[in-house]
Amino acid sequence: MFESAEIGHKLSDKEYKSEVPGLREDLLRGQYELLEKKDKAVLIIVGGVEGAGKGDTINLLSGWLDSRHLDVHALGGLPSDEEAMRPQYYRYFRRLPPKGKIGVHFGSWHSQPILKYALGEITRSEMDAALSRVCEFERMLVQEGWVLLKLWFHLSKKQQKHRLETLSKDKKQSWRVTDRDWELFRQYDRLAKVSARALRETSTGHAPWHIIPGADPNYRHITVGRALLTVLNASVPGVSEIAPVKPAEPADGLHLLHTLDLTQTLSKKQYKARLEKLQGDLNLAVRAKKFRGRSLALVFEGWDAAGKGGAIRRVTSALDVRTYHVHSVAAPTEEEKLYPYLWRFWRYAPKAGHVSIFDRSWYGRVLVERIEGFCSEADWMRAYKEINEFEEQWYERGVETLKFWLHISPEEQMRRFKEREVTGYKKHKITDEDWRNRERWAQYEHAITDMVDRTSTEIAPWTLVAAEDKYFARIKVLETVLERLESRR
To answer: Domain ranges in the chain?
Structure first.
């Protein structure tokens, strides 16, 4: 894997000085074009052996570029306390550069699997699973418009030893060498073997690794500069794939929602009795010692006027206001459009002991965006897999995700719409979009069936709630949440 990086690549000072002015000019021009067009983002991943000049080259690159539009993050170490309380990829999503900018990550999602396996902290199968997730994550980024420039700075064992010894003897440079650097050097052979395998597994056509010989600074700087210029000049990225095959409409026209019994009701007396008991039990469940290391994500989707807001309020009434947050999801803002689709939802990952409630959610991509044509067919078709992966990562960090679809009949929706039109404090709840959505009822039924079929999993199931009677729906939601929490005790 590293043979060609050890054959003695060099550039003389004369060759280097003749190359730099033109390269700097081209890089700066490319950076400003990127900033103006905002059609993609560039993310530079920096990895490799200690002492191979990673910091030296990136510092120089920062001087060649306009550093105001360069986001640099060090991610090789352990997550912060805040990050440790959330799913693993939270720390990576929150540091992604927006479209129009260049980001640099020292260390990345590759670092920990490589290091942990090399040091015997995880098994080979665990590393393989982690690398598989890396590939899926990078594929998603590329499909969303991110160009990944993955740089692995390499030194032979002999070169690394010489580099560390030289720096250690220099009083002005000795601070660069730490005990950890020497500890990792002693593991060189093992780390090189594991790194080579990891790089082979994660070097793909859309996100390949570039091996950077680190011994000669001149060669290293120019090689990295040229690599960056290539991606700046590249067209908007994407992953070519076979055209997706859309799910077929049921031959008999029967959808999941048609099987719900909308005649189920509760009297006001039954409702009040059940409500008080369930809210009390829910309050105790989320205050229990066992819940402190876990968290809860409640997703509410449903027809317009199906009662999502009322169901949410009956849940929050049982919670301490300091431990939950309700996120009302609308169309993405201009800022959010500069990031991958799931970025805005990763920001709301609940930390341990807390509850995140979503009034609408990431499922908008396979519902309204699919129906209204706000994204391509390829985008919403791949979203099912990306969403399942997203929810699985949350689950692995202790986030219990429950998803509710509140269902009512077209007739009941019409009744509620008319009621809103004549009720002063409810008029704001109805919009032209609500009326337009009624015209696409059949299309939504098909999309909802596909959504449930493809994303209702054991770890993040969908619950279809008959919401013709609001009392019944609110109790059903509370019962489902409580049952899930109690089943995990």
So the answer is: 3-233, 256-487
Q: What homologous superfamily does CATH list for 256-487?
A: P-loop containing nucleotide triphosphate hydrolases (3.40.50.300)
Q: Hunting for tokens 């929050």 — which residue is that? A: 316
Length of the chain: 489
Closest CA to 23 of 227, 285, 239, 196: 227
Rounded to the nearest 5°, which phi and psi values hold at 411?
-70, -40
pTM of the model as a whole: 0.86
CATH code 3.40.50.300 for 3-233: yes
Structure tokens at 102: 């260049």
pLDDT at res. 488: 72
- Sign of the Cα torsion 329, 370, 481, 353 reads negative
CA-to-CA dists, residue 259 to 254, 350, 453, angstroms: 8, 33, 14
Cα angle vertex 103, ends 97, 104, to 5°?
Answer: 145
Per-residue pLDDT tens over the stretch 231-246? 999 877 665 555 555 6
Strand-strand pairing, 324-328 and 399-407:
unpaired
Q: Per-residue pLDDT averaged across 242-255, rounded?
A: 64
Q: Measured between alpha carbons, how far is 357 from 316 in angstroms, rounded to an integer?
A: 9
Which contacts qualify for 326-335: CB closer than 8 Å, 24 or more apart?
A: 326/357, 326/358, 326/359, 327/356, 327/357, 327/358, 327/359, 328/359, 328/360, 329/358, 329/359, 329/360, 329/361, 329/364, 330/360, 335/98
**Which residue in this structure is represented by tokens 């770890």?**
459
How do residues 446-456 score in pLDDT, each as one tens digit?
999 999 999 99
E-assigned strands of 181-224? 209-213
**Do 3-233 and 256-487 come out as alike in CATH topology?**
yes
